[in-house]
Amino acid sequence: MTQEALHDLSYAEVEGSQRAHFRTSTWWLFKSYWTSREAPVSALLAAFIVGSGFVGVYFSLRVNQWTGKFYDAIGSGRFGTIPALLTLFLGLIMVAATLAISASVAADVLKLRWRTWLTTTLIDQWTRSGAYFRIERDKLLDNADQRISEDVKLFVDYTVTITSHLIHVPVSAVTFSIVLWELSGNYLLELGHLAITIPAYMLFAVYLYSGSTLLLTHLLGRSLIPVNIRQQKVEADFRALMVQIREGAEQIAFYDGASVEASRLRSTFASIRANTWRIIRVTAQVMFGVQVPGQISSILPVLLVLPQLMAGTMTLGGMMRVSAAFGSVSSTLAYFPQAYQSFAAWRAVVRRLLALLDANEIKSPTFELTVLQRPQQTTIEVGALTLTDPHGNPLSRIPAFSVKHGARCLIRGRSGSGKSTLLRALAGIWPFGIGSITVPARTSMMFVPQKSYVPVGSLRQALAYPGAETDVSDALAQDILAAVGLAQFLPLLDQPDRWGGRLSGGEQQRLAFARILIARPDHIFIDEATSALDDESEQRMYSLLLERLPHSTLISVAHRKEVAAFHDQFVDLTPDVVATSAPGAVSNQPKSKE
């Protein structure tokens, strides 16, 4: 699926041209789990659920037979048989209830196993090969996190519930259709001089009634699918905005932007409100198509068999059995119109998950910018590059240069000249452009952006990221935190917290340098990672790198001239002008001249 088609899927949903793809991909959601190592145990659970449903239908049939005997006993005055009949009834409902509870527990266990497997699988697909980054960078779809955290649960819940009903409904319908066929007798329809005998007329009546109800519900509720998809999106957007406000609370307070954020929240919630009104309207239509016929069904079978009762061709018990069987068939078939909203929600959830699956698999458009790894190479070599945006529009041209192992290279230039984009290209996360980059293979690299990611957890985990917290001993943490000026947080080393919100911008940048000192990479790439520090602290951070990692290659992007003193090689960039053939130049200048 193309990126354009995927974008349409996310917002306007899949229509006729996408239905074949929808069916094929939906099959993957089932097949992938039921052919996995989880399948044998889950298959046993599913078999128990299905078997319990069949046995439940058998007990329902026994209760129907009991109903006839019970009311025949009352109608004929055989009251002495009632205690035995009541004992039988209690036994039937106790066994049926135990079986139903066991099946419900088995269904919950199956849902949990399936959700666990599918969530893990989607997380692996989302995080592998940078899919999570490409989705956000290229704006492939909205709220990928919600699709994994919420839509997976909804998909599994709806699928297990709907599938079990789709298996049990036909069995129950056929079983009680046979009862109706045997008990309802014939109906003589007189049309003038023409007399037509309708055999088992109650059976035809119940299917005509149920089919009409289903058709009415479909006509009234077919717009539920798009409004449910829309609801998933607007709810997720509202949650994301509130998270953004919570994480940026201090900055918003500095800007006195509370009223602006409140307005944004109200505007976003207005979309939820408007779409919810649409759901209410459509749901009311569906309920009208279900509830009104449902009320009629309570009296309809009695009215249909009343002539036989009055003629003496049917006993009271027979009438009650026919009425109960009619109710069983109609209520069983009524599952389809009643489940219309659930099925619409299921389709909406499936489409959102399929969009995520497609987005995970979409690769970036093929460009001629390549990053090669060579085992015997020790230098980083950048050929003459043309960096572009994802649509191929030129952003900047980079002159060819190389950085020897252990060198300190500073990339300079005005804002918009392509410095940060060049670092992204070196990291392999910006494939848009023309040219080649060659880096040493089997060496460690660390890229430090201006604002480093700080995961929720302990400070030790934040120091070790992306490594394991066991890599950071107490002694190492004490040494590193003191070196970067964060010694005051040592007592809180193992305290879980949202450190990204607790630490100031400068403290987060100190934490980033602490990570470098702990990881000791062979190549260090720094993108304005000291912008929130004062001059003295900035110089201290760079001095630490040179003192403790003297053999590591350092490539920096910075605006402050003072940083040049810590570098011995310089790459000067200027914003790209299409008519300019060489907007950048490389110089190997001695530090004294800078």
TrEMBL record:
Give its localization: Cell membrane
A GO CC annotation recorded here is: plasma membrane
**Domain (ABC transmembrane type-1): residue spans on this chain:** 47-345
The residues covered by the ABC transporter domain are 380-594
Q: Is ATP-binding one of the keywords?
A: yes
Which PROSITE patterns does the UniProt entry name for this protein?
ABC_TM1F, ABC_TRANSPORTER_1, ABC_TRANSPORTER_2
Give the highest taxon in the source lineage: Bacteria
Q: Which keywords fit this entry according to its UniProt record?
A: ATP-binding, Cell membrane, Membrane, Nucleotide-binding, Transmembrane, Transmembrane helix, Transport
InterPro entries, per database record: AAA+_ATPase, ABC1_TM_dom, ABC1_TM_sf, ABC_transporter-like_ATP-bd, ABC_transporter-like_CS, ABC_transporter_sub-D, P-loop_NTPase
A molecular-function term among this protein's GO annotations: ATP hydrolysis activity
Q: Which parts of the chain span the membrane according to its record?
A: 41-61, 81-107, 155-181
Classify the protein's membrane topology as the record does.
Multi-pass membrane protein
Write down what this protein is called. Answer: ABC-type uncharacterized transport system, permease and ATPase components, protein
The species this protein belongs to is Herbaspirillum seropedicae (strain SmR1)
